[in-house]
């Protein structure tokens, strides 16, 4: 028998304000055509002034708990992936713990930018398979609209806000690739690429700062690194590309998503794509895609999924799981 971290529930939250590409045309030197053709993005959601990463994370968490048929105090832990926590500290995860009314267990944030949800899944999986927790809420939540330089056309049109959450539960498996749950994880980072994608603020500067990105340089790293980490994770899980039901990639750019799928030999009709409606929501993009993919009827019980992401750091990785 092998302990597996199995998905018991999923949910998401998107702010009500939807911003179409055309809104940017009136403010900066850009066009709907440029944004669509270069990134695949058509619209994104932006948080209202009152909404924060923790408030959106709490809404997604409530939806996932409802889907799982569980109460907050049924959880042992919360692992929240974000780079836009409400405050420097305490963690957004402990704020969610309080907002949910969860009075037991432990909660912490994981910060690996757009790869954050992959890192969070790997951490939660390790806690479950080592017997330290039985039920973990894993959340990805971001308010990147609050770190946008609205005068920078090369970044401000790309990002959006939102949150997604999974409830993972320890269940016994057979130790084969037919088990439900997380089958393998693969993580990487390379700090030499710091300047490709960073926020020019933080405690050392006295201001929270704005996102800066050399998009075309990140793009160059993305396809090769994502395909490579996905292959490593699939090898580790003992599965092949033709067995994969769905790739659920980080939603940064449709061209990166297509390039990675091609390198993995998986056709686009087996890729969950939400980038057109959400933009790049960083650590929230994969759990949002999982939740929307499930709601659309794409992802079904027993399906084999490969998730992969890359972002600032650079940090990247992949998780193979059976839904
Ligand atoms: O999620 C974390 C990881 N991040 C990513 O994965 C993002 C990766 N990168 C990308 O998605 C793409 O590189 C972008 C969508 C950011 C840009 O696409 P690109 O094909 O790499 O374009 P580029 O940066 O090479 O820029 C091409 C041109 C430039 O003009 P010149 O120098 O060729 O005259 C830019 O100034 O497009 C110009 N440009 C724009 N034009 C209209 C940049 N932003 C805009 C804009 N509207 N919003």
Descriptive notes:
The chain has 323 residues and is of the alpha/beta class. It has 2 domains: 172 residues, Thiolase/Chalcone synthase (Peroxisomal Thiolase, Chain A, domain 1, 3-Layer(aba) Sandwich), CATH 3.40.47; 142 residues, Peroxisomal Thiolase, Chain A, domain 1 (3-Layer(aba) Sandwich), CATH 3.40.47.10. Helices cover 32% and strands 27% of the residues. It has 10 helices and 13 strands. It has a 5-stranded mixed β-sheet with strand order 1-7-6-4-5, with helices on both faces. The chain has a 4-stranded mixed β-sheet with strand order 8-13-12-11, sandwiched between helices. A two-stranded antiparallel sheet has the order 2-3. Helix 4 links the parallel strand 4 and strand 5. The longest helix is centred in the C-terminal third of the chain and has 23 residues. The chain starts with a strand and ends with a strand. Bound molecules: oxa(dethia)-CoA. Oxa(dethia)-CoA binds next to helix 2, helix 6, helix 7 and strand 12.
List keywords for this structure.
alpha/beta; four-stranded mixed sheet; 27% strand; binds oxa(dethia)-CoA; Peroxisomal Thiolase, Chain A, domain 1; five-stranded mixed sheet
Number of separate helices = 10
Characterize the biggest β-sheet. Answer: 5 strands, mixed
User: What portion of the residues fall into strands of 2 or more residues?
Assistant: 25-35%
Q: How many β strands by DSSP? A: 13
In CATH, what is the homologous superfamily of the largest domain?
Thiolase/Chalcone synthase
Q: State the helicity in percent bands.
A: 25-40%
At CATH level 2, the architecture of the largest domain is 3-Layer(aba) Sandwich
- Rg, please? 18 Å
Question: What would you call the structural class?
Answer: alpha/beta
């Amino acid at each position: 028998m092998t302990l597996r971290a199995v998905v018991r529930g999923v949910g998401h939250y998107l702010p009500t304000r939807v911003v179409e590409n055309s809104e940017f045309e009136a403010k900066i030197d850009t066009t709907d055509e440029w944004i669509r053709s270069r990134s695949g993005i058509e619209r994104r959601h932006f948080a209202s002034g009152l909404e924060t990463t923790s408030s959106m994370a709490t809404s997604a968490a409530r939806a996932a708990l409802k889907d799982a048929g569980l109460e907050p105090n049924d959880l042992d832990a919360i692992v929240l992936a974000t780079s836009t926590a409400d405050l420097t500290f305490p963690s957004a995860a402990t704020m969610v713990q309080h907002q949910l009314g969860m009075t037991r267990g432990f909660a912490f944030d994981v910060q690996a930018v757009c790869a954050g949800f992959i890192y969070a899944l790997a951490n939660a999986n390790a806690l479950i398979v080592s017997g330290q927790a039985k039920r973990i809420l894993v959340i990805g939540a971001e308010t990147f609209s609050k770190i946008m330089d609205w005068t920078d056309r090369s970044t401000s049109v790309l990002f959006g806000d939102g949150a997604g959450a999974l409830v993972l539960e320890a269940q016994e498996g057979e130790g084969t690739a037919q088990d439900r749950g997380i089958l393998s994880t693969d993580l990487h980072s390379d700090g030499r690429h710091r300047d490709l994608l960073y926020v020019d603020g933080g405690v050392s500067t006295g201001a929270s700062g704005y996102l800066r990105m050399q998009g075309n340089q990140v793009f160059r790293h993305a396809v090769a690194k994502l395909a490579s980490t996905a292959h490593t994770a699939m090898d580790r899980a003992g599965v092949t590309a033709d067995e994969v039901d769905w790739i659920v990639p980080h939603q940064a750019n449709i061209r990166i998503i297509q390039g990675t799928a091609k390198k993995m030999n998986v056709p686009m009709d087996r890729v969950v794509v939400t980038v057109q409606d959400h933009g790049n929501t960083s650590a929230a993009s994969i759990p949002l895609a999982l939740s929307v993919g499930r709601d659309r009827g794409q992802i079904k019980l027993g399906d084999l999924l490969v998730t992969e992401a890359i972002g600032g750091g650079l940090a990247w990785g992949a998780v193979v799981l059976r839904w």
